[in-house]
Design goal:
By secondary structure, this protein is an alpha/beta fold. Helix content is about 30%, strand content about 20%. The protein has an eight-stranded mixed beta sheet with strand order 6-14-13-8-9-10-11-7. Strands 2-1-3-4-5-12 form a six-stranded mixed beta sheet, with helices on both faces. Helix 7 (about 220-230) runs parallel beside helix 8 (about 255-270).
Length: about 300
């Protein structure tokens, strides 16, 4: 059962935090300018660019405790309506044990992010029972929205969702296995989903429609991740599987991404009967439609419908 949360309204406040890697300063500046142009206020308790091109904290923008404290500062700030991650990169995983999910639940705020932030989204959804949105981060679509159509569509779709003006959306995909399915949506980056296996922050996929994307992995790594999910029992009781974009994942030699997808359909989940779709505009390097974890997803042949009022 999800808790009720605050909507984002015109003139509302977005709290931005780099839960993983830092953002290039000029890109962060353009992101804030675009959000302010759209009529929002921005708060950033920890500068998302503070550790750019520095490695004091490995791959991340600050220590795990600094980043977790920044998240909690935004959660408890009465002026902040939603929490927006700055980017992915790497690092969100080590903040999870430092977050107070009871306080997060009481505050009733949505969190938005993608890629590495998948770990935080699933924990937010599973532990705090709050909606978490896999969608454009502050420094992904927003800095490019004025010049790039895909970025503009990603940013517009997220804003429309957060403001409550698009509770039901429908997407036409390619049906790799026909059928019907309905269940709560679990969406995120494939690698980060596997990283949560065996941790206290994993969630059940039973009866869910799983939506996945990836960037930069070689085909064998994609195959390995799907096998790992299968061995962990995550693919046994799905209501459906939707494949987003697998950007920059091709290799110079060996099986292709298309081959891996065929292996997934025919071999890895071959014995299962749930429908499988491909071609959702979801993921890195292109249009990234936002999806709310826990929202109701429906698959009917090649159509994927989501009912995700915040």
């Amino acid at each position: 059962m999800r808790e009720k949360v605050r909507n984002l309204k015109s003139g509302g406040c977005l709290g931005i935090v780099a839960t993983g890697s830092p953002v290039e300063p000029e890109r962060m500046k353009r992101s804030v300018a675009e959000l302010e142009r759209r009529g929002y206020r921005v708060k950033m308790p920890l500068d998302p660019s503070r550790d750019y091109a520095r490695y004091d904290h490995g791959f991340a923008n600050g220590s795990p405790r600094e980043r977790a404290e920044a998240v909690m500062t935004l959660v408890t700030d009465p002026e902040v309506d939603v929490v927006l991650t700055a980017r992915g990169g790497y690092g969100a995983l080590d903040t999870l044990p430092l977050l107070d999910f009871e306080v997060i639940r009481s505050a009733g705020k949505v969190i938005i992010g993608m890629s590495d932030a998948t770990a935080l989204l699933l924990a937010w959804f599973g532990r705090a029972k709050l909606p978490a949105v896999h969608g454009a981060a502050a420094a992904t679509a927003f800095p490019d929205a004025a010049q790039d159509e895909a970025a503009a569509r990603s940013a517009d779709a997220l804003v429309s969702l957060l403001e409550g003006s698009s509770p039901t959306r429908e997407f036409q995909c390619q049906a790799l296995r026909n059928g019907q399915g309905q269940g709560p949506v679990i969406a995120g980056n494939l690698t980060m989903l596997t990283c949560l296996l065996g941790t206290p922050f994993d969630v059940s996929y039973d009866g869910a429609i799983l939506v996945v994307e990836e960037v930069g992995d070689k085909p064998f790594q994609l195959h390995r991740s799907f096998v790992q999910l299968k061995l962990a029992g995550k693919l046994d009781k799905l209501a459906g599987l939707v494949l987003g974009r697998f950007s920059r994942c091709e290799a110079n030699h060996g099986p292709s991404v298309d081959d891996v997808i065929r292996f997934v359909v025919d071999d890895i989940v071959g014995a299962a009967s749930f429908p499988i779709l491909r071609g959702l505009e979801f993921g890195h390097w292109g249009e990234n439609q936002p999806l709310v974890l826990g929202s109701t997803g429906k698959i009917e042949q090649s159509r994927f419908e989501v009912e995700d009022p915040i």
